[in-house]
Specification:
Strand content: 5-15%
Distance between the termini: 74 Å
Largest sheet: 5 strands, parallel
Number of strands: 5
CATH superfamily of one domain: HUPs
CATH architecture of one domain: 3-Layer(aba) Sandwich
Structural class: alpha/beta
CATH class of one domain: Alpha Beta
Number of helices: 7
Radius of gyration: 28 Å
Oligomer: single chain
CATH topology of one domain: Rossmann fold
Order of helices and strands: HEHEHHEHEHEH
Strand order of the largest sheet: 3-2-1-4-5
Shape: elongated
């Protein structure tokens, strides 16, 4: 008889435990749902500010001052060369330089012109004299290599300040990569991010190109940080 009572008591305890667990699960689920709802409401209200903060973080914009040279980054050809030429015409630097990157396969086949030659042609078309344009480095693989070439060029020419003209989503990434080879030199990099054809840090979320551009820049930044 006692054994039967113990079994009944055990079953009741088991049922009570299950009910208690179910109530706790419901409470946790409700709390999680409330948190998600609040989070969703905050995003709906402040999404522009949040996305603007992301764009502002990825875009480094320094005050423009007269410098020794303007560095033209190998970014968007529809905007970056024109912005660099405008800075030259306004007297911010007496010379422009661009990297001598390794030719791509399509460039080797002469299907398109080499990027540096294309950049030189754009600069001269915008009023920059050919003798004010120099190519630095040879067979450069990436921006880190360009930083090394820039360091050698600055050392040889007593240069201490450089305006870096690049595309807005890549300005932080470019600054970090260039700085890796300039850490032991007292060279001031002044980042000058340029709006692309479609977006910059103030409205990148309004276009598909903006999402792709800033995602690529953020993804590359994370990779460079993890594997540097």
């Amino acid at each position: 008889m006692a054994s039967s009572d113990e079994q009944t008591s055990g079953k009741n305890q088991s049922v009570a435990d299950k009910r208690l667990f179910a109530r706790r699960l419901v409470k946790i689920s409700v709390r999680m749902l409330l948190v998600l709802m609040v989070f969703g409401i905050l995003i709906a209200i402040f999404h522009n500010q949040i996305l603007l903060a992301i764009g502002s973080f990825m875009t480094v914009r320094d005050p423009v001052e007269r410098s020794d040279v303007i560095l033209l980054m190998n970014r968007e050809s529809q905007t970056v060369p024109f912005a660099a030429a405008e800075l030259y015409r306004k007297g911010y630097a007496p010379k422009l330089v661009l990297g001598g990157y390794r030719s791509t396969r399509i460039e080797q086949l002469r299907v398109i012109d080499q990027q540096r030659r294309f950049g030189q042609k754009l600069l001269t078309s915008q009023g920059v004299p050919p003798d004010r344009i120099e190519v630095i480095g040879m067979e450069l693989k990436d921006t880190i290599d360009l930083g090394g070439a820039l360091g050698d060029y600055c050392k040889a020419n007593n240069i201490i300040s450089v305006i870096v003209v690049t595309s807005s989503p890549f300005s932080r990434l470019d600054r970090n990569d260039l700085s890796r080879r300039l850490a032991d030199q007292n060279i001031k990099l002044r980042m000058y991010p340029v709006r692309t054809q479609y977006y910059d840090e103030t409205d990148w979320w309004n276009s598909k190109q903006g999402w792709i551009g800033y995602f690529d820049a953020y993804y590359l930044s994370v990779l460079h940080y993890c594997f540097r």
